[in-house]
Queue: 4 jobs
Job 1
Amino acid sequence: MGTSVVPGFDPVTLFASESALGTAPTPANVAAYAALALPTQKVDLGPVQAPVVRPKQDRGLGRGMQDGFVSGRYEPVPWNVMMSLMSRSANDADPREVALFKAAGLKKTTNAGVSTVYAPSATPEASGDFVSATLTRLMGRSPGEMEYERLTGCLVDTLRIEGGDKEVTLNWSGVGQQKVVGTALASITLASGVVTTMTVTAAESYALAPGYYICESEIILVSAPTYGGTSVTIARAQLGTTGVAHTAQPLYPYIPSGVSYSGSPISEALTTNVTLDDDSTFRCLSWSIDIKTGLAPLPGETGSAYFQGVKATRYDVAPSFTFLLKGNDVRKFNKARERTSLAFSVSQGTSAGGIITITFPYAELVAPKADDSANDTVTVQASLRVRDNAAGNNAFSITLT
C-alpha cells in the first residue's frame, strides 16, 4: 500500500455545517454521509497545520544561532474550493452548496414555490446566519492508496461568482480552525467487535487522524490517536455497520458509497441576461462578482491553541463585466462622469431550479474606456461601485429560482 502513488483525479469532497465552531458533524448513517458530497473543479484545504515555531531566545551553547525551538498557537488554515453552481430539484429548494452559503454568513429567505434568496446579514454571528463548516477531501481508491484530510471550523471570507462566457462558477475562499490528515494502514488486528483500543506501531500512529475508517465491512471511528504512541482509541460499528473481529486486515479512510451528484451546471448558452439601468438589451460578454463577506477569525486567546470565534466586519462587493459596445451605449459613459445611481442585475439559466439572478439596486458605473479594437468590434471592460441605502445590508441579493 505504501509504495504506490495516490490517484487524485476523482476525489470525494464533503461539505457539512457544524453545530459549534470546530465540531465536525456526525452523520447518522452511510446515506447521510454520502449526501454531504459535492462535485468540485478544484479543492485546496491548505497546508498541514503546525504550531507557530520560534527559536529559543536563550544564549546558545556555541556559535550556532539557536540550540532549540519553542512553539505556540496554531494559525488559521487557508482553503479554497472552486465548483459549478448546480441546478436544484425545485426553484425554492436549498442549493447543494448550502453549507458554504451559511459559512459565508449570508441570510437565507425562502419564498415558497418561487425562489431562495441569499443577501447580507446585519449580524451574521448573533442571528445564526453564519454557521461554520467542515470540509473533508478523500483521494484514492479503496482498499489501497488513500489520503484523508479534514478541515473544521471553516468560514468563507471571499466568494467570486462568474459566468456569461461559461457555466456559473463559484470560487469560495476562507480559513479553517483545525486540520487533520490521515492515510491507510496495511494491517491491523482487533480481537473482537467491541474492543475500543487498537494497537499500532509508533510509526503507524502518524498515519491516522480523527475520523471514519473502514476495515473489511466495518466502519470505525478513530477518535484519539496518540502520535508517537502505540495505542489508538476507536469507536466501533459506525454508520450502521456491525462490529466484528479483524485479523491482519487493512484499515483505510472511508469513502462513502452511493455518492451521486444531482443537478447540472447552469450553462451560459443563450441564457445570460444583463440589465444596466434602463437597458435590458445590454450585450454582456462575461461577468464576475467578488464578494468580501467581512468574516474573519477572532484573534487568538490566552490558553487556546486555535481561534475561538468569528467576527463580522464590513462586507464589500465588486461587480465587473465585459460588454460589446453599441452606439447608444456611449451615453452610459457620461453616467459614470455624473455618478448617476443605477441598478444592475445579471441572470443566467433557463428553467426553474436552474436560474441565478444577482441584483445590485444601488450602483455607480466606474468610468470605462474603449481600447483600440485592433480592427474589430469594440469591447469595454467596466466595473461598478456598489453600496446599500439607508436601510442598510441591501447592497446585493443572490436569487436562486
Job 2
Amino acid sequence: MKKPKIITLKAWFLAVFVNTLVMGCAAVGPDYSPPEISVSPAWHTQLKDCFTEHEVDPESLAEWWTTLNDHKLSGLIKRASANNLDLKKARARIRESRARRGITRADFFPTLDVTGSASWSRTSEDRGAGKTSDLYSASFDAGWELDIFGGVRRSVEAADADLQATRENLRDVMVSLLAEVALNYIEVRTFQTRLNMAEANLEAQAETHKLILWRYQAGLSDELALQQARYNLENTRSQIPTLQTGLQEAMNRVAVLLGEQPGKVHDDLVKREPIPVIPLKVAIGFPADVLRRRPDVRQAERELAAQTARIGVATADLYPRFRLKGSIGLETLSLSNPSSSDSRTISGGPGISWAIFDAGAIRNNIEVQSALQEQALIKYETTILDALEEIENSLVAYAGEQQRRDRLLKATQAAKNAADLAQQKYEAGLTDFSNILDAQRSLLSFQDQLAQSEGTVTSNLIRIYKALGGGWSTMAFEENTSFLSEKTNEIKK
C-alpha cells in the first residue's frame, strides 16, 4: 500500500517565505495621504493687548487652569479627571478598539484547530449478526490565507486608525470636561458674588427703611416715601432666592461632572470666595498650530484615514483568495495501538476561491466605501472650519467682555457715589426720597451686572483655552501627529 506523502517543514517554510514576499507587494485600493490644509497666517480677529501670538507651551496649556491660581478649582478638576463617567466610557471605547484591532491582526496568521471524536455503532440482527464497531478519530488542522492583494493589511490599517481616533476622542472628552468643570465652578463663584452684592444692598436698604420709618413716625416724612422704601427693600429681597437657586444648581452640576451625586460638593464650595483673577496676557499661537493640537480635528482626520483603508478592503474582494490547508490525523477502530502508521491520515494543499459573479455587489460596496470616504473628508473639513470659528468667536467675546467690564466698573463707582450723595442730601433736607430710591436701584443693578461681567470674562478665558485644545496630557502629544504633514504649513496668501 502506498503511504500518503507527508507535508514537510520545508513546504511550510516555503509558504512562510511566499507570504512574506507577497506582504511586501502593494495592497489594492487608494493609499492614504493627509489632506492639505490651507489656513490664514494670522487670526482674523484683531488681537487686543490681552493676547499674544507667541507659541503656546504645550505643558502649560495642558494644565491651563493653574493660571487662575485657584487651589479649589484644581482639586475639582483632579477629581473629575479620575471619576467622570464620560471619561470612563471613552476609556472603555479605547479598550474595545484595541481589542478589535487585535481581532483584525489575527488574520495575518494561520489558524490551527484540534478535533477529536469517538463513535459506537451496532448493526441490526436483521441485516447481519448484530455486529458492533467503534471508530476513534483525531486531527490537527491548519489553514492560512495569503494576503496577496492586501485586504488584511488594509483592514489592519483601518483598525489602527480607528484606535487612534478613539484616543483622540478621549482627549476631546477631556478637553470639554475640564472646561465644563471650570465654567460651572466660575458660575458658582459668580452667584456667590452676586449674593454678596444683593445682601449688602439689602442691608443698606433696610437701614434706609428704618430711617424713613423713624422720620414718618416723627412727622418728618410722608407715607409715600415709607412705601417706596419698603417696596425697594422687598424687591431686593425677592432677588435673593433666585440667586440661591442658581447657586445650588451650579453646585449640583459640578458634582455630576465629578461623577458624584448632587450635593456632594456643597461642603467644599459653601464658603464664598471671589471669582478667580485672570492673567494679564494669553498666548494663543497661530491657526495652524492650534489645528494640529485640537483633538476633534485629529480625530476627524484619523476617521478619514480609516475610511480610506476600507476602500482597499472592499476592493480586495474583486480578486481571488489563496489559502494553504493541511491536516494530520488518526483514524482507528481500536485504541489498542492508535499510533500505528496505518492509522495516520495526512492531507494538504493550496486552495483558491474567487467570486466570479455577484450581480455587482462587490463594486457597489466599493462605491459605498468611497462615498463614506467623501463624507469623512467633508466632516474633516467641517471640523476645521468649526474649530476656527470657535476660536475666533472666543477671542472676540473675551476682548469685548473685558471692555464691558471696565465700563461697568466705572458705572458702578459712579452709582455708588450718587447713592451716597443722594443719602446725604436727603438727610439734609435738600432732596426728596425718590432720588435715593433711584440711586439705590441703579447701584444694585450695576453691581449685579459687574459681578456677572467679571464671571463672564473668566468664563470666556476658559472657552479660549478649550478652543485652543487645552486640557489633555502632553505625554502623548508627539504620537499620531503624522497626519498633519509639512503641507499643513502651506499658508493661504
Job 3
Amino acid sequence: LIAENSELEIIKGAEQTIKRCKPFIYCELWDNNKRNEVIRLIKSLGYECYFRVSGEFIIVDIDQYRNRNLFFIPNE
C-alpha cells in the first residue's frame, strides 16, 4: 500500500484493528505537520518509535531524528 502522505488517515481508519492485533508498523513519514500527528496517534495506541541501524532497532528521540523511515513496535 502506498500512502503518500495519507498515513494519518490510514492509521485512524485502522485504529481498532491496530488496537486488537498490535502489528509492527513501518512508515515513511515526510518532515511535515502530519508527521508529528501520526507519531502522536500511534504512540497513543501503545507503540514506541524506532529506527533501524545494522539490523538493530534503536528507540527514536523523535525531536532529534528527522529521517523518514520509522518503525512502530507495540510496548507490550
Job 4
Amino acid sequence: MPNTLPGVLSLIAPLSLAVMLATLGALSRRLGRVTHARPYYLGFHAAALLALAALTVHVLDLAQPVPVEAERSLPWATLYNALLAASVTLGLGVGWRYWSWLLAERD
C-alpha cells in the first residue's frame, strides 16, 4: 500500500485558500452593505470557487492509479496550478480594489 499521507496533506492548501477567500467575501459583503459600495465581494466568492475547482482537479488527479516510478500527469498538474494561480490573482485584485482605502494616507 503506497503512502498516501503527502497526497492527503496536499489537499489542505486549496481548501484553506477557499475558506479564506469565502471569509473575506463575507466580511466584504457586510462592509459593503454599510458603506453602500459596489459588490466587489463577488470576486472573492468567484476566487473561492476557483480554489475549490483546483481542489477537485487535485482530488481527481490523486484518484488515478499511478505506478510508483511514474510522476503525476502534466495536464492535471498544469490545470491545478493554473486554477490556483487564477484564484490567488483574482483574490488579490479584488482585495486590493476593495480594501485599498485602509492604506490610503489621510491628513
